[in-house]
Design goal:
The chain is α+β, with helices and mostly antiparallel strands. The protein folds into 2 domains: about 5-140, Nuclear Transport Factor 2, Chain: A (Roll), CATH 3.10.450.50; about 170-325, Nuclear Transport Factor 2, Chain: A, CATH 3.10.450. The protein is built from 8 helices and 12 strands. The strands form 2 sheets. It has a 6-stranded mixed beta sheet. Strands 8-7-12-11-10-9 form a 6-stranded mixed beta sheet. The protein is globular. One of its GO terms (biological process) is polyketide metabolic process. Pfam families: SnoaL. This is Polyketide cyclase.
Length: about 325
C-alpha cells in the first residue's frame, strides 16, 4: 500500500533532478494547481504550481549545477495544531556546483550544500501548501562572501542525526511522546534569569535538555554544544537584543519516532532593543519565521536543528544582507 510520506519524499527528490522538458508534467503529478508556497526572504509567497516552478524550483536547478537533495531528516504525521492536516517536514541540503546566482546570492563556482528546512501539507496525495527556509546567509559563507561581522557559534555543515535514523522513522506513538517533550520545553521557555539567562526548568535532572545537547543553528549564529554553549553562543546575545521576544505561534507541530518538529510563519514577535550581529538597536517591532527539528534520547532533547529567516530579520533591521554580500569580493576568487 502506498504511503503518502514516502511518496512525497520520492517526488521531492526527483523534482529537483528530472530533465527540463519533463519538469512541468512531472510536477503536475504531486503539486496541486492552486498550491501556495511561502519561501523565506527574498522570495516570499508563490501561488500556483507554475509560480512555484518559476520562483523556486527552476532557480535552484539553474544555480546549483547537477543539484540533488540530501535529506538529513524527513518524516510526517498529523498536525497537532488546530489547523490539522497531514504534513511532512525535512532538513535537507541542495547539493551541487554553485556557479550561477541564486536569489541575488553570488556564486564562487564551488560545491555548495544549501541547507533548507521544509514543511509540506499533503491532501489526496498532492502538495497543497509549503513553508521553506533556505539558509542563504550560510550559502553566502560557502561562496566566500559572508556579510556579517562574526559567527557566534561554530561554522559547520548541518549533520544528520547521530543515530542515523531520521528518514521516515514510522513510529507514530513514540512520535507523540517526543512531541510532548518538545511542547513541555516550549511552555517553559519564557522562564529565565534576565542576568544569566539560565532556565532552571530547561536543564538538570528534571530539565528538558540532555546534558550532551547539540544545537545546530543557521548562518550568523552557528552551532553549539551543551546548555552553556547554547547560552554563550546564541541565547544571551539574542535575548539582549530582543528582550521581549514571544514565540510559539506555530501553524504545525508533528512527531514521529524519536523526532519532532514545529514551525511558525511568523513564530516570533519582538522589539530590537540591543545590538545584534553588528546592527545597532533600532527599537523596531519585528517578526521571525522559525523552524525547529528535534531528536529525543532518554526522554530529553539531545539534538536540535534550527532554521531562521534571517534575511527577512536583517531587512527589518534596515540591512540588506544579500546586497552587502554581493558587494564583497569572494575570498575564493
Amino acid at each position: 500500500m502506498s504511503d503518502w510520506r514516502t511518496d512525497t519524499r520520492t517526488f521531492l527528490n526527483a523534482l529537483i533532478r528530472v530533465p527540463d522538458l519533463e519538469l512541468e508534467p512531472f510536477a503536475r503529478t504531486a503539486i496541486a494547481d492552486d498550491t501556495i508556497w511561502d519561501i523565506a526572504a527574498p522570495v516570499g509567497r508563490l501561488e500556483g504550481r507554475e509560480a512555484v516552478l518559476d520562483g523556486f524550483v527552476r532557480p535552484l536547478r539553474r544555480a546549483l549545477r547537477r543539484v540533488y537533495r540530501r535529506d538529513e531528516i524527513f518524516f510526517g504525521a498529523r498536525n497537532r495544531r488546530e489547523a490539522g492536516g497531514d504534513w511532512v517536514c525535512a532538513v535537507t541540503h541542495y547539493v551541487g556546483v554553485f556557479d550561477r546566482d541564486l536569489f541575488g546570492v553570488l556564486p564562487a563556482g564551488r560545491m555548495a550544500f544549501a541547507r533548507s528546512g521544509e514543511f509540506y501539507r499533503i491532501a489526496n496525495g498532492m502538495i497543497v501548501e509549503a513553508k521553506i527556509i533556505l539558509d542563504l546567509i550560510d550559502l553566502m559563507r560557502q561562496a566566500g562572501r559572508f556579510p556579517l561581522p562574526r559567527m557566534l557559534g561554530t561554522e559547520m555543515l548541518f549533520p544528520g542525526p547521530a543515530t542515523h535514523d531520521g528518514i521516515l522513522p514510522n513510529d507514530p506513538a513514540r512520535g507523540e511522546a517526543s512531541l510532548d517533550i518538545v511542547e513541555a520545553m516550549i511552555g517553559d521557555l519564557q522562564e529565565f534569569d534576565p542576568e544569566t539567562f539560565h532556565s532552571e526548568s530547561q536543564t538538570g535532572t528534571h530539565g528538558h535538555w540532555h546534558e550532551d545537547m547539540m544545537w545546530y543553528g543557521p548562518g550568523g549564529i552557528g552551532s553549539t554544544f551543551g546548555w552553556d554553549g547554547f547560552v554563550s553562543h546564541h541565547r544571551a546575545a539574542f535575548l539582549r537584543a530582543f528582550p521581549d521576544r514571544r514565540g510559539g505561534n506555530h501553524f504545525c507541530r508533528i512527531g514521529d519516532g524519536d523526532f519532532a518538529a514545529f514551525s511558525g510563519w511568523p513564530s516570533m514577535t519582538m522589539t530590537h532593543r540591543g545590538d545584534y550581529l553588528g546592527v545597532p538597536a533600532t527599537n523596531r517591532a519585528m517578526t521571525l519565521n522559525v523552524m525547529d527539528f528535534y531528536r529525543i534520547a532518554d526522554a530529553k532533547i539531545i539534538e536540535n536543528w534550527v532554521l531562521l529567516d534571517y534575511v527577512s530579520l536583517f531587512d527589518q533591521m534596515g540591512v540588506d544582507v544579500i546586497a552587502r554580500s554581493a558587494a564583497m569580493e569572494s575570498h575564493f576568487l
